Amino acid sequence: HRIEPVGEVRGVRFYNDSKATNTDAVEKALTAFPSDRVVLLAGGRDKGTPLEGFARTVMSSTVHAIVCFGEARERFLEALDAVFDDELRRGITLVGPHRDEIRFTIDGRDARAFASQGQQRSLVLAWKVAEVAVTRDILGHPPLLLLDDVMSELDAERREAFMRGIEGEVQTVITTTNLGYFSDAILSRARVVTIEKDAAIH
Q1: Contact at 8 Å (CB) between 37 and 62?
Q2: Are 22 and 49 in contact (CB under 8 A)?
Q3: Disulfide check for 4: which of 16, 63, 120, 164 has CB 3.0–4.6 Å away?
Q4: What are phi and psi of 150, to 5 degrees?
Q5: pLDDT for 6-43, tens place per residue?
Q6: Is-contact 170 143, C-beta < 8 A?
Q7: What is the pLDDT of residues 150-174, one digit of tens each?
Q8: Strand-pair category, 194-196 with 172-175
Q9: Three-state SS letters, 43-103
């Protein structure tokens, strides 16, 4: 059985995925629940499969809790503990969407290799504007947008286009070392705070 619905109890949906007899199959099955809080039952016979990759996938997925059982129980627990201990030792989170590598393409070509600095910056800023829209849809109100020196590699036309995209209900804080990047019209609508020798001068 692959991801077969078997019932619902008090709002909790149950699925039978007993045909997922290897960790790769389980990892693929988890992608079917991109926004659910998943309780994963994992175990059975121990086939000696390496579990480090599986543990990292589980910890970066929507799995809220995992129940380990059977012959493989101890190895599952050890693999999960190892990932957690590694994070504590390094002082960073090793799994999660922030570790994903996002690639942008222009006409099918990798933007990192073929796009100009201005094009690359424009792609990143477009992504940020999209994140603002998604966050607003989820929260019901716009987020606070923080941007660090984003104008230096944009030409005047792109600067104006970007500022039009974020003006309005999105409160935005932008750092810069050159106010010349901003038109008089933009500056007239902004509150400018100058930092000199660790002191803020309004």
Answers
A1: yes
A2: yes
A3: 16
A4: -90, -10
A5: 898 888 889 888 876 788 888 888 888 877 888 888 88
A6: yes
A7: 888 788 888 888 888 777 778 889 9
A8: unpaired
A9: EECCCCCCCHHHHHHHHCCCEEEEEEEECCHHHHHHHHHHHHHHHHHHCCCCCCHHHCCCC
